[in-house]
Design goal:
There is one protein chain. By secondary structure, this protein is α+β, with helices and mostly antiparallel strands. The chain has 6 helices and 8 strands, in the order E-H-E-H-E-E-H-E-E-H-E-H-H-E. Strands 1, 2, 3, 4, 5, 6, 7 and 8 form an 8-stranded mixed beta sheet that branches. The chain is elongated, with a radius of gyration of 17 Å. The N and C termini lie far apart (36 Å).
Length: 211
C-alpha cells in the first residue's frame, strides 16, 4: 500500500505498538512512524461475551490489550488493535487449526462479509484513552474444493481473522465498500492519522482502577 497517511503524535511520549503482528508493524513503518513494540499478553485477548456484536468485541479487546501494556509503562502512547471478520451472524477470529480455517472459508465462500478493527490509543503520561472501530466490507467468490485445498496448503491463513489475508493477493477476494483498505490488513491507517491529530479533544480520562 502506497501513500499511507501519518498523523502528528499528540504527546512527546514514544509510540508503542501493543501487538506482535508483523502486518501492523509493516503498515506503521510504511507510513513513516517511529515506534516501539511491546505486545500485550495473550491473556488480554481472553473473555467472550455471547451478547457482543463484532464491533463491540474488537473495541473491548483493543482496550484490554492497551490496558495490559499501559500497566507496565510510565510513559508511552500505546496503540492497540484487534481485527475480526463477521459473516451471517458469526464472529470469526483467528483459526485454531486447518480444520477450523476450512470451516471459516466455507462459511465465507460466495458471500459478502465485514471486517472490523478496534483501535485504542492510550497515553500513559496523562492516563487518557480513546477507542474507535472501523468497518470494511468484502466479497469472496465461491471457492472450489481445489481452490480451498490449495490455499489451505499455503498456510497463509495462520494467525489471520477469518482465515485469509487480503494482502496475500488472492483474486477471489474483492472490496465492496470500505473506510480503509489497510483496515482489512489489521490497522486502519487513515483513521489512525485522524485519531492522533484529534486525540486531545477525543480522549477521556481512565479510572485509576484500570491501571
Amino acid at each position: 500500500m502506497n501513500d499511507l497517511p501519518r498523523g502528528r503524535l499528540p504527546t512527546d511520549e514514544p509510540l508503542v505498538l501493543a501487538s506482535g503482528s508483523p502486518r501492523r508493524a509493516e503498515l506503521l513503518h510504511a507510513a513513516g512512524y517511529e515506534f516501539e513494540i511491546q505486545p500485550a499478553a495473550d491473556s488480554a485477548e481472553c473473555g467472550i461475551c455471547s451478547r457482543e456484536t463484532a464491533p463491540e468485541m474488537v473495541a473491548r479487546l483493543a482496550f484490554q490489550k492497551a490496558a495490559d501494556v499501559i500497566r507496565k509503562r510510565k510513559r508511552g502512547l500505546i496503540l492497540a488493535a484487534d481485527t475480526l471478520a463477521a459473516c451471517q451472524g458469526q464472529i470469526l477470529g483467528k483459526p485454531k487449526n486447518r480444520d477450523h480455517a476450512e470451516s471459516m472459508l466455507k462459511l465465507l465462500s460466495g458471500t459478502k462479509h465485514d471486517v472490523y478493527t478496534g483501535v485504542c490509543l492510550w497515553s500513559a503520561a496523562s492516563n487518557r484513552c480513546y477507542v474507535d472501530v472501523v468497518r470494511s466490507r468484502l466479497e469472496m467468490q465461491t471457492l472450489s474444493a481445489e481452490q480451498l485445498d490449495a490455499y489451505l496448503d499455503t498456510l497463509l491463513w495462520e494467525g489471520k481473522a477469518g482465515a485469509f489475508g487480503y494482502q496475500d493477493g488472492n483474486d477471489w477476494i474483492s472490496v465492496v465498500d470500505q473506510d480503509s483498505e489497510s483496515n482489512i490488513v489489521g490497522l486502519p491507517m487513515e483513521r489512525l492519522a485522524e485519531l492522533l491529530e484529534k486525540f486531545d479533544s477525543l480522549a477521556d480520562k481512565v479510572e485509576k482502577e484500570v491501571r
